[in-house]
Design brief:
The protein is α+β, with helices and mostly antiparallel strands. Helices cover 28% and strands 23% of the residues. The protein has a single domain (24-153), classed as Mannose-Binding Protein A, Chain A (Roll). It is built from 4 helices and 8 strands, in the order αββαβαββββαβ. Strands 1, 2, 3, 4, 5, 6, 7 and 8 form an 8-stranded mixed beta sheet that branches. Strand 4 (83-89) and strand 5 form a beta hairpin. It is globular. Bound molecules: methyl 2-acetamido-2-deoxy-alpha-D-glucopyranoside and calcium ion. Calcium ion (CA) binds next to strand 7.
Length: 154
């Protein structure tokens, strides 16, 4: 019996090791979800894109960056269909989309016809469970559709 228990413990330990589940760093919220070396959390607070960016920084992270398709597939699962800000903007140069960590936006999943800079004031990236749209920065305040944002931690 003892041998069986020991074998099970060793097997479980080997399984956990194989999964490479890292320890959540101090300061990252306990309910943040892990993907590929980073931690992500949906914050359900209606803020402008800039206030959302600042809030993520205050919490020791940054607005979510989506550098590739694999990350987007994961981030999609966090949205549960809600419209949320993530960290890209073309506010400096219209049409030149940059992540708020200073890297250029290369991978994209814009909805058909987007980004369209509707009304010449849409410079901020909002996502839902499907695709991307550019929206005005005040959209979460003037209209309750953008209900929050996604922060990430390294
Ligand atoms: O038709 C797409 C278009 O829909 C809205 O504008 C009418 C969105 N703007 C807001 O909701 C503020 C656009 O971003 C979107 O491109
Ligand atoms: Ca748009």
């Amino acid at each position: 019996m003892k041998t069986l228990v020991l074998a099970m413990v060793l097997a479980l330990s080997a399984f956990a090791h194989a999964q490479k589940i890292p320890k959540r760093p101090l300061g990252v919220p306990a309910d943040a979800k892990h993907f590929n070396g980073k931690w992500y959390k949906v914050v359900l607070e209606k803020k402008t894109w800039h206030a959302a960016r600042d809030k993520c920084k205050e919490m020791g992270g940054q607005l979510c960056v989506v550098p590739n398709a694999a990350t987007w597939e994961f981030v999609k699962t966090l949205t549960e269909g809600a419209k949320l800000w993530i960290g890209a903007t073309d506010e400096v140069t219209e049409g030149k989309w940059m992540w708020s960590d200073g890297t250029p936006v290369t991978f994209t999943d814009w909805a058909p016809g987007e980004p369209n800079n509707f009304g010449a004031s849409e410079h901020y990236l909002a996502v839902n469970g499907k695709q991307w749209n550019d929206l005005p920065k005040q959209y979460a305040i003037n209209n309750s559709v953008v209900v929050g944002f996604i922060c990430e931690w390294k």
